[in-house]
Amino acid sequence: MRPQWLFTPGPVPMSEDTRQILGAQTPYFRTPEFSQVVLECERLLVALVGAPSGSRAVFLTASGTAAMEAGVINLLGSTDSALVVNGGSFGQRFCDICRCHGIPHRELRLSGSDPVPYPGTGARALLLNGHETSTGRCYDLDESGAYCRRHGMLHLVDAISLFVTDELNMASQAIDVLVLSSHKGLALAPGLAMVVLAPTALAVLKERVPSFYLDFHPYLNDGIRGQTPFTPAVGILLALLQRLRQIHAEGVSVHIDKARALAAHFRAGIRGLPLRLHASPAPNAMTALERTDGGDARDLVVALKQRHGLVLTPNGGALAARVFRVSHMGEQRHDRLAALLVALHAYFNNPR
Ligand SMILES: *Cc1c(COP(=O)(O)O)cnc(C)c1O
Description:
Layout: E1 5-6, H1 16-22, H2 32-48, E2 56-61, H3 64-73, E3 82-86, H4 89-100, E4 105-109, E5 125-129, E6 131-132, E7 137-138, H5 141-150, E8 154-158, E9 177-181, E10 192-197, H6 199-202, H7 216-223, H8 234-250, H9 252-269, E11 275-277, E12 286-291, H10 297-308, E13 310-311, E14 313-314, E15 323-327, H11 334-349
Parallel strand pairs: 1-13, 3-4, 3-5, 5-8, 8-9
Antiparallel strand pairs: 2-10, 6-7, 9-10, 11-12, 12-15, 14-15
Helix pairs in contact: 1-8, 2-8, 3-4, 9-11, 10-11
The structure holds pyridoxal-5'-phosphate (PLP).
GO molecular function, one term: transaminase activity
Protein name: Serine-pyruvate aminotransferase/archaeal aspartate aminotransferase
Binding site for substrate: 325
């Protein structure tokens, strides 16, 4: 394969340290040494997302969707009701999870930058994606948190494509359940999903969960001694520890500022091209763009990959022909972004 540079919203470019750890022999993990790894990962993760004291994290060997599903089914059942902010394919996924498990839900369907039409009456829980990665739109988590507190609702937030690039704080945003995964802002390999549970969520976990693998109880119990009930993604946890230590040492704000600068660099650089932001407010994590020259977004994505080895992401579904996405997550670099800008300008000078 010719050299490529990823601007995809997961996987994202990984650091040299991460690639070294992931390339090493996997150690045996039922050991006191590995327990220390898991315990430190949990301690650092809970601190970095601003979780209130007494919060816990569980580590699932799965992609992020499993953490979304686990969060929902450990807190909600067929006698509860959920309110789902559905502004794209990840919001739709929360609806599909509720439907699959027979959880009554009301959907707040919106497109692009529509304001969220929070209803006057609440539900048991609000489910939303802090950044709806299919449209590149961010929701105001202070607003959703305040709404949940006002109505006595659980606030379940999928922050998979928000963490480390954008402001996130479980305590100040009144988040009870936070869903994360390894291969977006955390810039690791896919395969590790995480759920952080505030004491307000731990206190109301369902006794019976309609899944063996995703039931939080054994994860929480075994996690006390730094273990998981089933084989964990050992290598990714080792890489996570290195990454969390680094983020902790530098400060999350350094990573947020870096992503913000990359996003600003990119958005300034496309001025004058027949492109516009698809939705707003846009996160630092990613820029989703629409072609305004009538051309097909998929042609552009194919051309940049073939001509320059630069990998952008087309959209799926109804937006496939119109929208494409450029991620600013992970070990993204200004020189690569500059190369992308040159390539985009060249493309629009000569689209064929
Ligand atoms: C990537 C992503 C997920 C998880 O998708 P997987 O394919 O299961 O990794 C969930 N929510 C959001 C907002 C995402 O960007």
